[in-house]
Amino acid sequence: MSQNLHGTFVSEKINKIRWRPDPFDNAHSFITGSWDNETNHIKLWDFKESPEDADIYPYVVSEYNYDGDVTECRFLSPDLFVSSSTTGSVSLMRINVDEKAVTNISEEIEWKHIHQFKNGEKSSCISFAVYDNDFATVGEDGNIFLLTALRKEPARKIINADSCSIHCVTFLKHSEILTGNLRGHMKIWDLRSSSNTESSSFMMSGEQIAPTCLTFHPTQRHMVVAGDEEGSLTVWDLRHNTYPLNLLSAHSDSVTELQFHPDHPDQLFTSSSSGELWHWMVNKQNRLLINDDEPDSNVWLLGDSIKNKLEVYALMSKLHMPINTLDLNRNRILCGCDNEAIYLISNIKLY
Q: Strand, helix or coil at 296?
């Protein structure tokens, strides 16, 4: 079956797009978060197929007016997700179906303007990471908040965690997070410690290059990859040291999002402000090196020789505007763009 690409004009710039989890692993709905509007929206979409041409068209099921630009969205369950805003607020949102079978989006908890500067001005909540029902938020104010879906009060505040904007965050384990700031400093925080200082820190590279996004390997969480403002990927193995294993030149502009395939963890997908959407995979002659039962067979941890073992494919023609976000579900990928369109690519060839 050949790969298919379907684009839909949605009349607003999309900053985040996320598949809605499906208990039967057959996701058919998703959410989008917009930016750069007077009033932004979080929308729930579903798909319908046209019997005439077998094309798939998304349609809006419900929408919610949102204060500020949507900076991140993450699902906790099929009915609960978390969103963040340039106003510094974080919200726990619920997807409901009422007695008339009408689906709507409502706000369960709002941590209003939780990120703000010392003078009281609003600070953007740039990103957050989720681990079960807990989430860690970071912002322009250099603060870190640990929140939980179980209560309104923050579980932990790390005020003045950084002297500049914190751009990205990910959980290494439930008690440990990794953050990256505007100057390229990466910091590991032990959440069990009462100290408000990092347990260790290191640099992205020899220069002050800001990371834009972070992810970890699906089966080896100690392997972390960061995308940066210059379009490169940096790979670390945090078991051994904090010196990068690899620095891979990639896109011609900043990496906006990156995600490993959960079922094919040797394969990575990246999007960029350059309007590119790429699929990274191990080339055919090196695919036999991969053994899921042998952790050391992870090709991404091979050091400089990795560059001869990877192939990169463009999943769609380069756009003239940024692709801000992507999300995977089995052999399908969604992406959202500044050209006010969303794209579904189905039947992606996975090895």
A: helix
Query: Is the CB of residue 314 less than 8 Å from the CB of residue 278?
Result: yes
Q: What is the DSSP letter of 298?
A: -
Q: How many C-beta atoms surround the C-beta of residue 63 within 10 A?
A: 16
**Helix/strand/coil for 308:** helix
Q: 29-35 and 13-19 as β-strands: parallel, antiparallel, unpaired?
A: antiparallel
Q: Tell me: the pLDDT tens digits for 102-151?
A: 999 999 999 999 999 999 999 999 999 999 999 999 999 999 999 999 99
CA atoms within 13 A on the CB side of 67: 13
Q: Are 227 and 233 in contact (CB under 8 A)?
A: yes
Give CA–CA dist 227/323, Å, rounded.
14
| pTM summary value | 0.94
Dump pLDDT digits (tens) for 94-111. Answer: 999 998 889 999 999 999
Q: What pairs with residue 344 in β-bridges?
A: 6, 334
Question: Would you say how long the chain is, in residues?
Answer: 351
